[in-house]
Model the fold of this input.
Amino acid sequence: MIKSIFKGLAAYKDSLGLISKLRLWKYFAIPMAISFFTALLIGVSAWGLSDNIGALISKLWIREWGAQTVATLSTIVGALIIIALGLIAYKHLIMAFSAPFMSPVSEKLEAHFYSGVHQHRNTSNAGQLVRGLKINLRNLAWELLLSIPFLILSLIPVIGIAATAILFLIQAYYAGFGNMDYTLERHFPYRESVNFVKRHRGYAIGNGIVFMLFLLIPVVGIILVLPISVTAASKTTLELLDQKTIYSDDHRN
Done:
């Protein structure tokens, strides 16, 4: 899996060049706007709700001594919890609603690299949106189920370091999953796509690691994360599909 993760990371090196060469920036205008305003909404929510969640947490401290310090720390923890959960929701919201714009990008890349090689299904914008919602709601449910225990553990000293690392990798996997599905939706039905990503989870993690790191870059990262990560994921997924096609042909022969 380690080798696959590094291959997923390496796919990013040509992303900007491919976007410019194939004139793909026009497809990213609306997704970049969706990404920016969704992130802004999460930031405002974290600012507004952190006091409320902090107040609930601080009630666990029943002593008067240190109450003010606990209240301050509780507010910070409340903001971090909202941001962490917000990032999980953010990924799936922008991926689902950007599907009708990202699928053409993947198709342009496929035509560039493998024109006439891959046979795939015809899909409509509405079908892509429904598929995006279905995949991302499924991934959101699983990611929350897996992340919440590690989110709680991340608040514990020492143990929190390992828990935070695992939490990051979980988020990276589902980010990469969503990016890969923009290509897979033309080739496979829902269940086969899920199984495909499971078999190649290292590539999804590699793609998602950079996706998550981009989100740490103020403003610019939020705007550019989709164009660069989707281009990299499409390139990786197409290579995996091509290997599958070659294997199947050799097997039949």
Summary: The chain is about 80% helix and 0% strand.
